[in-house]
Amino acid sequence: MNFNEYPIESLMYITNRPEIVFTHGKGSWLYDNNGKRYLDFIQGWAVNSLGHCNDGMIEALNKQAQLLLNPSPAFYNGPMAQLAGLLTQHSCFDKVFFANSGAEANEGAIKLARKWGKKFRDGAFEIITFDHSFHGRTLATMSASGKPGWDTIYAPQVPGFPKADLNDIASVEKLINAKTVAVMLEPIQGEGGVIPATREFMQQLRALTKQHNLLLIVDEVQSGCGRAGTLFAYELSGIEPDIMTLGKGIGGGVPLAALLAKADIAVFEPGDQGGTYNGNPLMTAVGYSVISQLTAPGFLEGVRARGEYLRAKLLELSEERGFEGERGEGLLRALLLGKDIGNQIVERARVMQPDGLLLNAARPNLLRFMPALNVTNEEIDQMMAMLRSILDTL
Ligand SMILES: *Cc1c(COP(=O)(O)O)cnc(C)c1O
User: In which residues is N(2)-acetyl-L-ornithine bound (predicted)?
Assistant: First the structure.
């Protein structure tokens, strides 16, 4: 392979990347520098909600690029206000702050909760989070995450994130003390292996946090923006959190994230929160296109139908091959393999000929599926056929 055109050795080594360079994409398909195409069921890690190079997003990006890139975060711009309005209209929240990544939105949520604790709860600052959770890669969000090994890698940690067990309300109750200000969780643990919090657990959490005057924070960076078949995953449990964070899917592929809060929780004062690119009109214009498309009549019904279709196909395969079933919501699903063959499948799927298949093993014993929300049933069938042929080679 000739990499002269691509000096990849100049990139800092942070992970093992395959020796291909992706050059373009459309919908559910991605193309590399050799002209090979790949059916993409990763979509930038549940990021490209509308697939690669969605027409509406391109139009919004082009139009905004001609008008205004950056007036400064100290001034209002049109797209930032319009996207905020769209998000408050379609959620239980009243106030929005835009950021550039999920981790940064979560940092904002942590700061907002600590500020609220200072103001109303005598300086309470501890935020109960969960084992196997993932909240990002800044020091505070790594400390909030329950990923094995992350407590020591960049020690010392940021203090104040005791860990409970998902779907075990007693484990949460046990950690509550005078210093506790909030509970933060992913309604569906994504990186942890697509583990949904049960509806019962979410309702118990809401009751418990109300009872102790604590904030409930949902990290919907992965589960939000239509991924779970509803615009936001908290809707599935019929509760209203106090704070929510969004990332990934809200930008559909561009760097955009958001922190949302109820009006009485949004207690930042001038100077408390900011960021050079917050509310950047180029990104928020794209986000507006994404959220408009997701909330168009019938779109989310379609996501739920395709999620059910994928679920049925995965269950059928599981029966056939003696796997351990599947789990998830909407188009965030996992096939439970029952043995550690996930990475091997991922590898073989990518190098498969003539077309490759992009899959992810969030854990070695499962495959995670996060296709474009507008994936077609035919593409799901194509993926299943490719997966079957790989399984035949194992
Ligand atoms: C990906 C992810 C994050 C981090 O988002 P970045 O944009 O990578 O900073 C945070 N929380 C959850 C649940 C995620 O899936």
Answer: 137
Write out the E strands in the chain: 22-26, 29-32, 37-40, 95-99, 126-130, 163-164, 180-185, 188-189, 195-196, 215-219, 243-246, 257-261, 326-329, 332-336, 356-358, 360-363, 366-369
What spacing in Å lies between the alpha carbon of 134 and ligand 1's midpoint?
Answer: 7
Residues paired with 27 in a beta bridge: 52
Q: Please give the Cα distance from 17 to 20 (Å, whole number).
A: 8
**In the structure encoding, which two tokens stand for residue 327, read together?**
């789990």
* Residue 290 known to bind ligand: no
Consult the annotation and say whether 219 binds a ligand: yes
* CA gap 332, 327 in Å, rounded: 9
How far apart (Å, rounded) are the C-alpha atoms in residues 26 and 8? 24
pLDDT tens-digit profile of 163-200? 999 999 999 999 999 999 999 999 999 999 999 999 99
**Phi/psi of residue 307, nearest 5 degrees:** -65, -45
Contact at 8 Å (CB) between 238 and 201? Answer: no
**DSSP assigned state of 42:** S
What does the pLDDT look like over 262-291, one tens digit per residue?
999 999 999 999 999 999 999 999 999 999
Please name each of the domains of the chain with its CATH number.
8-54+297-391 (3.90.1150.10), 55-294 (3.40.640.10)
Q: Which residues contact 137 (CB under 8 A, 6 or more apart)?
A: 103
For residue 87, report the distance from its CA to the centre of ligand 1, in Å: 19
Q: What is the pLDDT of residue 391?
A: 97
Contact by Cβ (8 Å): 29, 35: no
Q: Going by DSSP bridges, is the β-strand pair 188-189/195-196 parallel, antiparallel, or unpaired?
A: antiparallel
276 labelled ligand-binding: yes
Q: Can you give the pTM of this predicted structure?
A: 0.97
